[in-house]
Design a protein that fits this description.
The protein is of the alpha/beta class. Helix content is 44%, strand content 11%.
């Protein structure tokens, strides 16, 4: 390749300060390859500094080669022939052309934002792969002089050399920049907090230790005391709707002092066909990949799809194969300062490669808030006017409610107080509680008998050492499901499950329904109907035994627990699952038939006292 003479090169570079600095960086980086006034055999790969835009380096490289702009269109003449971007932006209606060993004809300089954008065979073929450093203090002062401004002191120029590209350019262009202005430009990329920090919010106990460690490490990275590869973090949050996954991402961004970029796979898909979707996905990653720091929140990340080990022949297989592969590439080539937060209600639907180390390798399951956390959430949304301890009774009445519902309840209470022209009071929240419908005496006895069945079978099979049983006296008819009773076990450790202990788990799950049948002669729907119900858990264990663990009649492996998901097994294996469930149903029904009178007695105690604790010694005590 032949470079332009120094005078022509300087004239082109002097039209834009960012391009001038990029040109200085290219010249400095290439000094070990050969001075730019000489010829260089082959082509060079330049990797720009982290967080810097490739556009200015492309323009600088074209200026160095002496390629001129078209005076009418402003485009670079022979742009596609002499200088290429390793990962050019997608243009609708034209094929995407990332760097390839099969498409390097006429290329003199390849510009990459990240070394991972350059295939290994292209790196090997290059005369040299050169990593460009950010502008030096001398480059910054040279730019000031060439653009007719007073140079900085060497101390100020050295400090500016440590700043992001946008802050550095703003300082160079400002005529009357002083040392005091450094604090101002440092605020350019800081977050204008519009919401609470994660550590100001109640709850999130599962994930806060990880987040505190992340905040400390990001601070060290900003102070250049820790490499980003040791900070880089991706996290997956899963859990039922309303557990605060979206709020977590926003509050984490505030805690980190970063901006939040939020999107969904559906938003990418809405762009159009496959190429349009991939372009939209790439634009999102480019938006956060500027080195300034950002939290990228990917809601409903399970919708990105899952690659099949054995394609089914459906045309959509190829579509999702391309989408997942491109998504993995974007995750792997993220630059510095980007924290990825994925959210899903269905973690088993996510391609396992997405969750590998270096991508999204942490996973936390968010649960619905307990009584204490509900009280804290109510107090938080009430602005601290009402302390959490004063809200315990109200929180008890809101069992099973997610944080979003609690926030709406407080907002309605605040509106009522404002309408009366007064401060929020406890009675305003009490007035917003859902109206409860009391259980009948027979329903209470059924709820208690159901839970006693779980407890007795659990103790008899060595599944637990104690069981605490509670029932409620009323329910919210507007809720998605009524929580009538619960059994909390002191479980025996089972770190190495056997066929026997797995069958025992199924038996314990079916024991509540069996107790109802023994006492009342029929069964309610309370054991099934939803994910997480007794019947769903029992069925899931049986399907894993047959299809994954090799504990069916034939030791067959159909896939991992994740692979099985909710997909049907072959008909013969599904029949075996049904047989396992039928056998365990008969087993627990026969066990409890002998204890009918004891079940009734314990159920009566629970109805009278609200709760009973059962222990393996055979004793029962009212709590």
């Amino acid at each position: 390749m032949k470079f332009a003479d120094p005078r022509t090169r300087t004239e082109a570079l002097l039209k834009d300060v960012a391009v001038l600095l990029a040109g200085c960086g290219l010249a400095r980086a290439a000094r070990d390859v050969g001075r730019l006034r000489y010829r260089v055999n082959g082509f060079l790969v330049f990797v720009v500094p982290p967080g810097y835009r490739v556009d200015e380096y492309e323009a600088a490289a074209l200026a160095v080669l002496g390629v001129k702009r078209n005076s009418w269109t402003g485009d670079w003449v022979d742009k596609d022939v002499r200088v290429r971007l390793a990962s050019p932006p997608r243009v609708k209606g034209t094929p995407h052309r990332p760097a390839s060993i099969f498409d390097l004809k006429g290329v003199d300089i390849l510009i990459a934002g990240n070394i991972d954008e350059v295939p290994k065979d292209v790196r090997f073929a290059a005369t040299a792969v050169v990593f460009v450093d950010p502008p030096t203090a001398q480059h910054i002062n040279a730019a000031r002089r060439l653009f007719g401004k007073e140079p900085f002191s060497i101390e100020v120029a050295s400090e500016l050399a440590k700043r992001p590209q946008n802050a550095m350019l703003a300082a160079i262009l400002k005529p009357d920049f002083t040392e005091d202005c450094i604090a101002v430009i440092d605020g350019f990329n800081s977050l204008d907090a519009t919401g609470p920090s994660l550590f100001e919010l109640p709850g999130y106990d599962e994930v806060k230790p990880w987040a505190r460690d992340l905040v400390d490490n990001v601070s060290r990275w900003r102070d250049k005391k820790l490499a980003w590869k040791l900070v880089r973090a991706g996290v997956l949050l899963s859990g039922p709707p309303g557990t605060g996954k979206t709020l977590f991402a926003s509050a984490l961004a505030t805690a980190l002092g970063m901006r939040l970029v939020s999107t969904t796979v559906g938003a990418w898909q809405s762009a159009g066909a496959l190429d349009d979707m991939l372009a939209a996905m790439r634009r999102t990653f480019e938006d956060v990949n500027d080195g300034k720091g950002a939290v990228l929140f990917l809601d409903e990340i399970d919708a990105i799809g899952k690659r099949l080990a054995k394609p089914s022949g459906d045309p959509s297989d190829t579509y999702w194969q391309v989408v997942v592969t491109d998504f993995l590439t974007l995750l792997s080539t993220l630059g510095e300062g980007v924290v990825v937060v994925g959210a899903t209600n269905f973690p088993d639907w996510i391609d396992s490669a997405i969750l590998r180390a270096g991508r999204i390798d942490e996973h936390f399951v968010l649960s619905l808030p307990d009584t204490q956390t509900r009280a804290e959430i109510l107090s938080h949304h009430a602005g601290g006017v009402l302390p959490p301890e004063s809200l315990t009774d109200i929180a008890l009445e809101l069992e099973g409610k997610p944080g979003a519902d609690l926030e709406r309840l407080v907002q309605r209470a605040q509106r009522a107080a404002r309408n009366d022209n007064r401060e929020l009071e406890l009675r305003d929240l009490e007035a917003q509680l859902p109206e409860k419908v009391p259980y009948t005496a027979e329903q209470l006895l059924r709820l208690a008998a159901h839970e006693v069945g779980h407890g007795l079978v659990s103790l008899a099979l060595g599944h637990s050492t104690a069981a605490m049983i509670e029932i409620r006296d009323s329910f919210d008819p507007s809720g998605e499901g009524s929580i009538g009773g619960s059994t909390v076990y002191n479980l025996e450790p089972d770190h190495f499950p056997t066929e026997t202990t797995l069958l025992n788990r199924i038996a314990v799950s079916l024991a509540g329904m069996a107790a109802e049948f023994v006492v009342f002669g029929d069964r309610s729907i309370g054991a099934g109907g939803i994910i997480g119900s007794d019947i769903e858990r029992a069925t899931a264990v049986a399907r894993r035994m047959v299809g994954s663990y090799g504990l069916g009649k034939s030791p067959v492996f159909m896939g991992t627990v994740k692979d099985l998901g909710d997909k049907p097994l072959p008909e013969k294996m599904e029949a075996e699952v049904a047989q396992i469930l039928e056998n365990q149903w008969e087993r627990v029904r026969n066990m409890l038939m002998k204890d009918r009178e004891r079940i009734l007695g314990l159920a009566g105690d629970i109805v009278a006292h609200g709760s009973v604790k059962l222990e393996r010694t055979g004793t029962a005590s009212a709590a």
